[in-house]
Amino acid sequence: MERYYVDHAATSPLHPDVIEVMTETMKNTFGNPSSIHSFGREARKIIDEARGSIADSIHADFQEIVFTSGGTEADNLALMGVAFANRGRGKHIITSQIEHHAVLHTCEALEKQGFEVTYLPVDSQGFVSVQDVKAALRDDTILVSIMFANNEVGTVQPIKAIGDLLAGHPAYFHTDAVQAYGLLPIDVREMGIDLLSVSAHKLNGPKGIGFLYAKTGVRFIPALYGGEQERKRRAGTENVPAIAGFKKAVDISQAELGEKTAFYEQLRTSFLETLQTSGIDFKINGAEENRLPHIVNISFPGTNVEQMLVNLDLEGIAASSGSACTAGSLEPSHVLSAMYGHQADELTNSIRFSFGYGITLGQTITIAEKTVKVVKRLTGK
Amino acid sequence: MKKPEDTRVVVGMSGGVDSSVAAYLLKQQGYDVIGVFMKNWDDTDEFGVCTATEDYEDVIRVCNQIGIPYYAVNFEKEYWDKVFTYFLDEYKAGRTPNPDVMCNKEIKFKAFLEHALKLGADYLATGHYAQVKIIDGEYKMLRGKDVNKDQTYFLNQLSQEQISKVMFPIGHMDKKRVREIAKEAGLATATKKDSTGICFIGERNFKEFLSKYLPAQPGRMETLTGEIKGFHEGLMYYTIGQRHGLGIGGSGDPWFVVGKDLERNVLLVGQGYDNDALYSDAIIATNVSWVSDKEKPAQFSCTAKFRYRQPDHGVTVTLLGNNTARVEFDEPIRAVTPGQAVVFYNGEECLGGGTIDQIFKDNERLKYVG
Asked: Is this complex scored with an ipTM above 0.85?
């Protein structure tokens, strides 16, 4: 059976060029980047080149990039690190109800440690309001963490406006850019961002690698102690092949930024048109402007998300509900819950399709047609 | 009949050895098998440990070994509404409910069966020890071959419609053989311990669990003649015929629970395993349901079980309409308990069953029992 992958927001396939770079690195460069001999220097060179490319991609400085094991570690390092390093100044943190669990659950852990967290609501379109951020700010607020773009519905948050607002406040501004990076241009200086998390595997890079951008002067304590790697901000011998692959993925995604957006928009439009002409009942969750190009979250009235996903999988289509699993069963999405309330039908009948590398227009239409077939069967039409 | 490869079977997988082997055997037979784990209860503790998560991990391992897709489905809400609410209501009424019977009726072979059909399944299979056979153009439910494991007691409420879509792939085997097959196939659950007790309570302390949901009202323990023998912790913690946990010392035969006086909140106790007060000779059963759709005679003889794993007793059943029946025993039976199931058999065939509601002896209702 032919299979169709439309879950690129969950993870994405490795770009062939990334595989090549990683394979070459594994074959040729095994040295420890901290060693003073030639083997070490070769490895160090790879890391520094990657750090340079990555810093450039967000208009940051070379030394402001800390490699981590991925987005989750970057989020944890930013939140935990800043909270504990700055608790002398205050104990208040502001975030939103639609953050990734890497942020939300870290905030919950911080609450247990005595920090106070304000979880800002969003409107029914999936946006945090700058006014709400402003209203929640206190003298003892030490950190504001608002995601760049939401991973479930794709809404892009008013990052620059929040950055501008915080320019006059001592609180640091962290943004989880895991879903946005590689698709949207990001300028940390212009947007007033102090900390930013990224993961490689969302942009056709390898799993197990990511970075935290931390602006020079931002005070945070490390999560891992050991050697002096990453200027003592993240101990542990670096994952050199993954970093090499990450750099390649960054280079490709930065070069293709505009092109990719245009193509995904085309796929998304065709997908929705196919659904439209089939006559099935559906509704898009989240705003139609200020959103990521590759994500579309759709509510299909009369269906049930668990039945939809299994049926789609049995048709070869890999999509998701965008929300977390416990014991393999789906918990209602906290994002849709924040947008519509706990009782809304959308919580039990919404599917996230996310486009990415390798998918064609023809496949997209096939996926839409198969989806229509499943919806019709489940709704008895 | 469709060929196995064109027949989709959803197997309800619990993470135990029985359902693992059920799925394995169907796959060997060439069916289009899908493993589905049901999450009915969340018991996540303060350290984030949840039995369901651990069981699902086992389902994943086994399904990957067998080479079948696996999914999970959440019925926590349905389980709470249909099974747990009933469970608490019965305890409030001083009875001893059987949540497994209700779970099979309302969840596994209703909500879950409907879910399986929505996944394009032709059949739902489970690892129950019971058998389904077509005899005279009708689906019959037969006891599992392993008499120690037979689970038809818990399946007594299933209808013709339900069992026509059900497969019990291990029902014709001994538990020992099931374990052997699991070992031969190298299944991850081959040596996993069988689960015991009520699924949502598991190994935990029953009293502690129940006290979280129902306020316990301590009261007196009395003999049927009104002699005070001590104090109980709450009537719901005791069941008819129970010996342990009464804390009545002294000489003579051990003491047993013989009844509950709900109005006075008194636990009635009597001495001796064979205490007369524990014996009854007839019941009225409610929620009586039959596997067969064919009309039953107004009165007939068969055998019955009044609790799980009890030997069969000869009975005469008189249908009273409204899904109720009067059941008269050939001989008096000890510790028949309201709230539990009465299940009827004709030889190997499970005919159906109901809920034990009122209990009689010599045509007199035992008001402290049911």
From this structure: no
